[in-house]
Amino acid sequence: MKFTRTLVAVGMAAALTTPAALNAAELRVGFSADALTLDPANHRNRETETVIRNMFDGIVTRDADMNVVPQLAESWTAVDSTTYEFKLRAGVTFHDGSPLMAADIKFSIDRLTKENAMGGQTSPRQSLLGPVTDVEVVDDLTFRIKLESPWPILPAMLPFQEMVSKAHVESVGDAAVADNVNGTGPFKLVEWRKGQSVIMERYDGYYGGSTDIAPADKACVDRVIFQVIPENASRVAALLAGEVHIIDKLPSHNVAQVEANPDTKVMAVNGTRTSYIALNNQSGPFADIRVRHALAHALDRQLVVDKILNGNASLTNGILSPDAFGKNENLPAYEYDVEKAKALLAEAGFPDGLDVTLDVDGANKEIAEAIAAVMAKAGFRIGVVVGEVSTLRTRFRTKGEPIDGQMWLTSWGNGSLDPVGIFVPTHRTNDRGNSSGYANAEVDALLDAANAETDRSKRAQMYAEAEAIVNRDLPKVYLWVAQDLYGVSTKVSGWRPSSDSRINLHDACVN
Amino acid sequence: MSFGKFIERLAQLIPVLFGISLIVFVMTLLTPGDPVEIMLGDQHVTEELEQALRRDMGLDLPPHERFFKFLGNALQGDFGLSFYHRQPVVDVIASRLPATIELSLVALLFALTVAIPLGVLAAVKKNSLLDRIATVTSLFGVSLPGFWFGILLILFFSVKLRWLPVSGNAGFSSEVEPITHLLLIDSLLRGRLDAFWDALRHIILPAITLGLPIASILMRVTRASMLDVLDRDYITFAEAKGLSKSKILVKHALKNALIPTVTVAALQTGALLGGNMVVETVFGWPGLGRLVVESIFVRNYPLIQAAVLLYAVTYVVLNFVADILYTVLNPKVRL
Questions:
Q1: Neighbouring residues of A348: CB distance < 8 A, sequence distance ≥ 6
Q2: How far apart are CA A132 and CA A129, in angstroms?
Q3: Beta-sheet pairing, A407-412 with A264-279
């Protein structure tokens, strides 16, 4: 009894001292991971980039519809197939007030692309700018990026890189850039409490950002806090409790709860990850194309999307997302047809059905079980085995070595939405994401040619052709592109999620 | 204990640490998963660039060379660079360790404050309603999974009542210049009551979640040893002398009954480090446990190696402390 009284007393005292309301000009993001570093050149991590992007701007960026638009650059032209010339905007300053010059751009890109350029280390982001050989400073506001070979996706890959101040990096030293920020972005660093939060405040000398993304002005809020909350349930709880305004990676089973709360809403955007079932094309039953086709006909994808993903995904009949460059819009779908699936199975020598194993990681277990249940009707007796994702990668992405497994429910995608980063690694013979052991010389030739083709429409045509071949060969059963879900407070305006999973808070306001 | 004995105990650490290093290294070798592959994510990468990254991470060397290189460096206090943070592992761990220590200490304090009085009461009023409730509750305390119990606490105290924060260990405005790096202590030392209160509000739920299983175990141990002591002749003798009941309980019974409790508490503190991994994830606590779990998933070998070594040292030291406490509380025992 006494204990209860004490508890109530403590509770009331706590309630009295709870900050009455969040500061009107402070925006808090409940984020699933901490930044690994605040050095834009020294990581290979999407979440880190999301945080960093609010403090550093790039030469170019993307708008919420994923179009590449100028940011620090005013304009660019391709001088020839291996040289691009960029003009910088005048009047851009770093957080310390010093002006941005072409020399800073050269320094930043050299740091990303040259061996041992980061105090003896090589940037892990080097491969994202693969063919870049050099940057030539023409004058204070003009520079040229030189390429080893034609690389039409340079503008699409530049939004991933943020620019640093040469003088700043040289004065603090490369190692200290990890927690010393001097960028050109809308917010400057206040404090990084490692493992817990990254706190930023508005940079009043901001030039306004990309002119293609209105409003081009200083940031709306005074302060931004990325609060690290790795556990899904806790992140949702923090949103519902009003402690944070935006949360990422809202689980689809929490959608109804967030919608039902009057102070919060759900915002969705097409993600960049294509989900598929990788099939072992090298050996076992799925080496037979008829069995692969049978499997595709045995699955009612829309049913799984509706029941398990609450409708938050769009079907795709190939590896490329509907938003991707070069997407073939006319790929035929493998319609849900149990009889056809059975007939194909019988034709392949399995009239009594087939016992197979579907590997999956813990996060997608529910989906795999639903798929297995649906497919049972057509004679696929599927055992779902849950494994750890890094282990599954090693078993299936073997670069030509024998694959250890039959089916793997997985996904692939990145924010470039360009086939080079998505189609090529997953389907080119022995490439690093080819989890089916798929090998087709015709597809390889098309992908290689497209890689170097500078004419956009020809390039798109090549990818469309390759996707049609793959759709016939069906090394994987292509499923859907799931939406990325965010829980957002109704107090937030001027912000919407973007496909590359960035959370750019430049235009966001809190009422 | 003589100084010689002390040195002897310290020397025993050396084979333990070598053994642990070897086991962890072999386990990382046997576990499938390639840190380079994981790090490169879903991107197109040429073979040369992949090899360059492998070289940079020191993974191009054969395993035995990697192990001896690790040992040689570790002896000089260099545990290498964390693959992901690209900073010295020692720095990364040091930035997260204080939060873990603070949470563990508060959880232990909570466990002791709850367990000892309850255990004593349950023993004194054996078979009473209170005893039964305490015994059954302690069973729940041990059995409830931390992630589930923690989320229940959050839903009730943070979402429904809005009394306590969901995650983190301090609010934005309660920044305190570090002295010990333990927020509760630093804020008091700096005379910042607001920051102290803020830190306290943040630590309550995770400390309860982490401390509950230990409180349950300690309650049972205290109860059992108290029952044992209360049956002893010297207690009967003290009663016969006409000493007051409270004096008998505190001075004669409890002092002796606490010996096993203290030993178990010292050993359970090691278990707190393990429980931290779950609790830190649920409460977004910026501690080491969460960092280690995340590092295991991405095969961040240097960090795993160093953290497991740190855990091992902590365990050995805590065992040592338990032994010493035992001799202090029970002079009959000699090390």
A1: A285, A288, A290, A291, A294
A2: 6
A3: antiparallel
| Cβ separation A175–B84 shorter than 8 A | no
Q: What is the DSSP letter of A12?
A: H
Cβ contact, residue pair A15, B155, below 8 Å: no
Give which of A306, A184, A190 is closest to A252, Cα–Cα.
Answer: A306
CB A367 within 8 Å of CB A480 = no
Q: How far apart are CA A435 and CA A428, in angstroms?
A: 10
User: For residues B198 and A218, what is the distance between their CA atoms, to the nearest angstrom?
Assistant: 32
Instruction: Tell me which residue of A341, A347, A210, A363 sits closest to A273, measured CA to CA.
Output: A363
For chain B, positions 225-264, list CB contacts with chain A under 8 A.
none
A407-412 and A354-361 beta bridge pairing? parallel
What is the pLDDT, as a whole number, of residue A9?
46
> What residues 381-410 of chain A have any CB closer than 8 A to a CB of chain B?
388-391, 393-395, 397
pTM of this prediction? 0.88
- The label of the residue with tokens 């003088």 reads A167
Q: Which residues pair with A88 in a beta bridge?
A: A73
H/E segment holding residue A191: strand A187-193
CB contact under 8 A, A413 and B38: no
Tell me how far the alpha carbon of residue A162 is from its chain's centroid. 16
User: Mind listing the pLDDT tens digit for each residue in A316-362?
Assistant: 999 999 889 999 999 999 999 999 999 999 999 999 999 999 999 99
**Closest C-alpha to B108, from B321, B335, B310:** B321
Question: Can you tell me the distance from the alpha carbon of A120 to that of B86, in angstroms, rounded to the nearest whole number?
Answer: 12
- CB-nearest partner of A231 from B37, B96, B281: B281
Angle, helices B301-329 vs B255-282, to 10°: value is 160
C-alpha to C-alpha distance for A49 and A181, rounded to whole angstroms: 14
Q: Is A201 helix (H, G, I), strand (E, B) or coil?
A: strand
**SS3 sequence, B66-131?**
HHHHHHHHHHCCCCCECCCCCCEHHHHHHHHHHHHHHHHHHHHHHHHHHHHHHHHHHHHCCCCHHH
| A16: pLDDT strictly greater than 80 | no
Give the integer Cα–Cα distance in Å for B274 and B144: 15
CA distance A496 to chain B (A): 24
Helical axes A441-452 vs A456-473, angle rounded to 10°: 160
The tokens for A21 are: 């309301």
Contact by Cβ (8 Å): A495, A488: yes
Decide if pLDDT at B292 tops 70: yes
pLDDT in tens, B86-113: 889 999 999 999 999 999 999 999 999 9
Which pLDDT tens digit goes with each residue over A459-472?
Answer: 999 999 999 999 99
Reported as half-sphere exposure (CB side, CA atoms, 13 A), residue A256 has a value of: 4
Which helix (H) or strand (E) segment holds residue B2: the answer is none
Backbone phi, psi, residue B218, to 5°: -65, -35
A382 three-class SS: strand
Residues 6 or more apart in contact with residue A153 via CB below 8 angstroms: A416, A418, A420
